[in-house]
From TrEMBL:
Domain CARD: 1-90
Record SUPFAM superfamilies: DEATH domain (SSF47986)
GO terms for biological process, alphabetical: inflammatory response; innate immune response; regulation of apoptotic process
Protein name as catalogued: CARD domain-containing protein
Keyword match Cytoplasm: yes
Xref: Pfam families: CARD
InterPro entries found in the cross-reference section: CARD, DEATH-like_dom_sf, NLRP_Inflammasome
Keywords, sorted A to Z: Cytoplasm, Immunity, Inflammatory response, Innate immunity
PANTHER family named in the record: CASPASE RECRUITMENT DOMAIN-CONTAINING PROTEIN 8, NACHT, LRR AND PYD DOMAINS-CONTAINING PROTEIN 1
Subcellular location: Cytoplasm, Cytosol
GO CC entries: canonical inflammasome complex
Ribonucleoprotein keyword on record: no
Superkingdom field: Eukaryota
Amino acid sequence: EADQNFLLKKHKRRLYSRMGQISSILLLLRDEGVINSEEEQEVRAQNTKQEKNRFLLDLVENKGSSAQEKLFQVLKIKDPFLVDDLEDFRLGIFRIFDPIS
């Protein structure tokens, strides 16, 4: 659990810009009881994707480690490549992609 919380806090700026599928993330977080419908609407009311992500991450962070763990699990389902990239970055693993010819 500590590793997931570390990932969310350490990579918060990356998550602001890279986290996608906000609608499905919000639905899963609501189903898990992490956020309520009013909080979901507050996130949706933000103007840009980055603002929505920032608002959601701040909201979840303020709810503590259990909420952060649930967000991490939702991200693993909805955006596994993003989570893999963050974990690789934390471990100092940098992938080199060969261009497709």
